[in-house]
Amino acid sequence: MNKVALVTGSTRGCGRAIAVELGRLGMTVFVTGRTTRTEKSPLNRPETIEDTADLVDAAGGRGIPVRCDFTSVSDVDALRERIESEVDGQLDILVNDVWGGDHMAQMWTPFWESDLDMALNLVHNSLDTHLIALHRMLPLILRKKGGIVIEVTDGDVDDYVGAGVPYHLVKCGIRALGRSLGVLLGEQGCVGMAVTPGFLRSEAMLDHFQVTEENWRDAPGKTAPADFEWSETPTYLGRGVAALVQDPDIARYAGKTVASWTLMHEYGFTDVDGTRPDFGAVLAGRKEQARL
To answer: Quick check: is 182 in a domain?
Structure first.
């Protein structure tokens, strides 16, 4: 597939998995984030953009790692210049997954008792970054019809279910971006939308619950909530996005936020262990149905 994709925030988690699965389709993928083999982000995680690019290469694509802090307009401008110089400005797919707010999310602290600076920084780090990326990259997407922009959020509805006001604001805001892009890009012959994973079994989440991908099933009800039983790897959403971008009728999802489990039912893919987690069924209280 002779296409070029940019995945923001692809150092780890869903961003990494999406980049790899797009690479598996033979795409050139610009892999972006703040952590390189010589420089770490404030999260101090071990994963790097070079590692992700290597995984894209191994999957059959071409990974191009570019360090980029999406709070910095000049960094994003430099990234755009790299796209202009390396692939003549071709950009067919933008997956906007930049986040990096875990260390600022005061999820279970009443907002009026929380640290205001941390709350404001969370919003800046996790919502302004999406706006900056869109402002600078949409002109590349819109150079020809058929471009796709996918915002990555958490949850497919705007109901408040805890997790803190700033976090809720960010994730609702990203869903709102998906709705806006659905209209605006549709007028230009392109598609804008949002996607969400379920209970994500990311590298950071495994560390948080003190397990690995090999023994994670020991965690539910012990180091992790019981619902972790229905968790999913980042690859699950990655496979969903890969199926989406190959769908000639992807425009039917324009403006919507589509969950990994919805994509699974539509396209029939599995997680890496062969299961088909349906966290939507868990949220709806149909846990037996979620055992696929």
So the answer is: yes
Using N-to-C axis directions, what is the helix angle for 73-87 and 129-141, rounded to 10°? 30
Q: Do 57 and 47 meet the contact criterion of CB atoms below 8 Å apart?
A: no
Domain tally, the chain: 1
Confidence of residue 162 (pLDDT cuts 50, 70, 90): confident
Please say whether the beta carbons of 196 and 156 come within 8 A: yes
Alpha helix (H) residue ranges in the chain: 13-24, 49-59, 73-87, 116-123, 129-141, 165-186, 203-208, 234-246, 260-267, 279-283
Indicate whether 216 belongs to any domain: no
125-139, 141-155, 159-173 — which is least confidently predicted? 159-173
- Encode burial over 13-27: b for 16+ CB neighbours within 10 A, e otherwise: bbbbbbbbbbbbbeb
Specify the DSSP class assigned to residue 149. E
Query: pTM, whole model, 2 decimals?
Result: 0.96
Predicted pLDDT at 269? 98
User: For residue 94, is it within any domain?
Assistant: yes
Model confidence band, residue 93 (pLDDT cutoffs 50, 70, 90): very high
Domain range for 248: 4-209+233-277
CATH number, domain of 12, equals 3.40.50.720
